[in-house]
Design a protein that fits this description.
It is a single chain. By secondary structure, the protein is mostly helical. The chain is 69% helix and 0% strand. The chain contains one helix and no strands. The protein is rod-shaped and about 60 Å long.
């Protein structure tokens, strides 16, 4: 088993946590944008009248 110094372990942990945090932030923002677009756009199928 490879021994990694505690300072390097802490750095790697911070790096992993920051990458995951950035990824999750992007995913949440994307979902919010999609939801906002759906709420803003009218439903096309319900706007037409059938004779």
């Amino acid at each position: 088993m490879i021994h990694i110094p505690p300072a390097d372990q802490a750095f790697l942990l911070l790096l992993i946590v920051s990458c995951l945090g950035t990824y999750l932030t992007r995913v949440i923002r994307e979902f919010e944008q999609v939801r906002a677009r759906r709420m803003a756009s009218p439903l096309r199928g319900h706007t037409t009248k059938r004779d």
